[in-house]
Amino acid sequence: MKKKWWNSLQVKIIAWSFVPTVIILSAVAWFTFYSYQKVLGDLAMREDLVVLDTKIVLAATAINNLINPSLQAIILNVDTNPELSREARAQNILDHAPNLDVYDGGIYFVDQHGIVFNSQPEQPELIGEDWSNTSQFRSVRDNPAGAGPISNIQSIRTHEAGIVCVIWPMHNTLSEFIGAGYYCLAIKPNEQNILYTTLNSLSMGQNVYILDGNQRIIFSPDLAQLGKDLSKEDSIQKLFRSESKSIRVQNGREDKVISYGSLVRSKDPTTFWILVSEQSWAEIMQPSLPYRQLLLVLLALGVIVPVLVTTYGVRHITEPIHKLIKASKQVTAGQLKQRIEVKTGDEIETLADQFNVMTTKLDDSYSSLEKRVADRTRELAILNSIISVASHSLNIQEILEEALIETVEQMGFDGGAAFRLESDLTRSILIAHRGFENPTALDQVNVDTFNGLNNFDENHSVVKTFEVKESLEELLSNQMAESDFQMLTYVPLSTKGRELGFFILVKNEPNKPSPEELSLLSSIGKQVGVAMENARLYEQAEQAGIATERSRLARELHDAVTQTLFSANLIADVIPRIWKRNPEEGLQNLEELRQLTRGALAEMRTLLLEMRPESLERSDIQSLLTQLADAFIGRVRVPVSLDIQGDCELTHEVKIVFYRVAQEALNNIAKHSGARQVELHLGCQPDHMKLIIKDDGLGFDADTITPDHMGIAIMRERANSIGASLKIESQLGQGTTVELDWRSARED
């Protein structure tokens, strides 16, 4: 249906929207209010400066009235004879000048070099001090025209809070500078201070204070602020950097106006007093509150009225959109059958129709996807189940039996058989079967049985399925028919391109497996093939290990026991003839025969211990060392002096280390030392055991033998494994001593 142009969503939005009007009206109202605030603020700040000038005049007048009467009396009536010495003139001032009690900070006189020579009250500790390094002294010294300035706050020992001084020069008859008088007012944080009471009586306000040239407070209504340094205050620094004498400062929630004016200024640029006034911005703007409220009301009306009108119009547009949003959320939550109905005749109605079409298609797609996910989940579960069964054993027969049973049950077949291929890949062996009452025919199945089947090529690595009535061997076909099997599936068991066997799976119904089921059967065949290959490799490794162990035992028997028994056999053959000729020599040969047989027996026991580690674990260390010594004597025919003291109760790990170290040491003696006598000593104490093996052989130079020779590295590693120390001492021609010392962790 063709829509009318006035039903267009764009036309509706333009017709009902007053947003530009609201924005313009708001901007005008804000600009008007801002301009009013700015003008009113500037006027208030100018007015604040006018008021400040009045306070400056009051303060300057009060300070002059405090100081001038006494100074005028000194200049006009007391210090009138320049011919007198400065000491006499200073004393004359102190004796005859009126109103000197005003200077509660003291009166001090310095010479032309700035050295203090008199004071009132008397302060002997100040006499002789050098005050020439101050800018105030230099100013009065270099200014022959008149008096010096009022100084900044300066500190002397008698006034910790500081003093401010009026400096008046003294000249001789030749107008030469010969000294100066310092007439000082104290800065004291109490109400008895003359300067404080004089300025405080003017009632200039609570936020008015006077600063010197160093930004220290000379006067403040708050006594605690006297002498405070404001040179690091941001507001004061902003005030001095500003081109105006009045600025607005906002610090956090505090919004105020700060103004200042010069109170006292001299030719010295570092000496000046200023009067500072602070006033809250809210107090300044208090008269503008009614007009500001009126502006705010007008601004609110200018915004609210268009908003109400626009809201009423836009509501008719947004309601269908809200329906779409709500329906979209429900679709997102999985409610794909959600539908909406909108009758607006514009683009929103078209959008709603398209939304309904989209949800219908989504619902159909989601249903199909759920089925595919369920099928895939089932396939993965079946595959994982069969993989778990196939990996459970390393016996090929067990693998095939369990994998066949699991495949038949999980895949819904009625029967099956598992075959293993011989190495020539033509002859197969029946390993397991399920569902066949008479498996006789299965014994004769080989891979060529399936070569003549329709659509079955020479590639046996592909899963194939076909009907039983197709050309099979007669015996197998008859057996299938007897069991009512109608469908047969061939599943190769292969890995790395090599076929190891196959499954024959049968069904009583003629329906063929789906492509997904065929793919799953192919994966099952590959996984079972991997398990068969692992079992085959394990079997080969086991056979190789047995062969290796047999070879090692044969070498051990040949190198040790066989040679010893051969020697014993030779001696036994000659003993009868020797006995007839010399019985004493015959006895010696009998003793040697006894030692050889005893050594051979010990060697055999040692080999049995190596073959059966549990026997090694059950034997005590004394028996093990005795057996090693006997085996050594029988093999090398060198006497061993065995000394075992104490009863050793050791863990298996410690016992094995001592046994292996002794075994390695005796082997080294047999191979390298050429010894004629060996001593083996074992000392056992609670939590401590020490083994010493000593021979009288050739010895060696320890500096020329690296640690990896003669099993030294092996012995050290074994000792470190139980925290024992191993020490080997040897010299050429003096034999070798091996010492193994162990202490338990409790003693450490």
What are the defining features of this structure?
alpha+beta; five-stranded antiparallel β-sheet; Beta-Lactamase; 17 helices; 5 domains; 748 residues; 20 strands; flat
CA distance, first residue to last residue: 99 Å
Q: CATH superfamily membership of the largest domain, which one?
A: GAF domain
Question: Helicity level, as a percent range?
Answer: 40-55%
Number of helical regions = 17
CATH topology of the largest domain: Beta-Lactamase
Number of domains: 5
**How large is the share of residues in beta strands?**
15-25%
Radius of gyration (CA) equals: 59 Å
Approximate shape: flat
**Unreliable segments of 5+ consecutive residues:** 451-458
Physical arrangement of strands within the biggest beta sheet: 2-1-5-4-3
Number of strands: 20
Describe the structure.
This protein is of the alpha+beta class. 27% of the residues are buried. Helices cover 49% and strands 19% of the residues. A five-stranded antiparallel beta sheet has the order 2-1-5-4-3. A five-stranded antiparallel beta sheet has the order 7-6-10-9-8, with helices on both faces. It has five domains: 44-63 and 204-286, PAS domain (Beta-Lactamase, 2-Layer Sandwich); 78-186, PAS domain (Beta-Lactamase, 2-Layer Sandwich); 287-385, no CATH class; 391-611, GAF domain (Beta-Lactamase, 2-Layer Sandwich); 612-743, 2-Layer Sandwich (Heat Shock Protein 90), CATH 3.30.565.10. Residues 451-458 have low confidence and may be disordered. The chain contains 17 helices and 20 strands. Helix 10 runs antiparallel to helix 12 (515-581) and helix 13 packs across helix 15. It has helices spanning 9-16, 19-78, 86-96, 135-141, 194-200, 234-241, 281-284, 289-332, 347-390, 396-411, 474-482, 515-581, 583-611, 613-618, 621-636, 652-673, 712-721; strands at residues 106-111, 116-120, 154-156, 159-171, 177-186, 208-211, 217-219, 246-251, 254-265, 272-280, 415-421, 428-434, 464-467, 487-495, 498-507, 640-645, 678-685, 688-695, 725-730, 736-743.
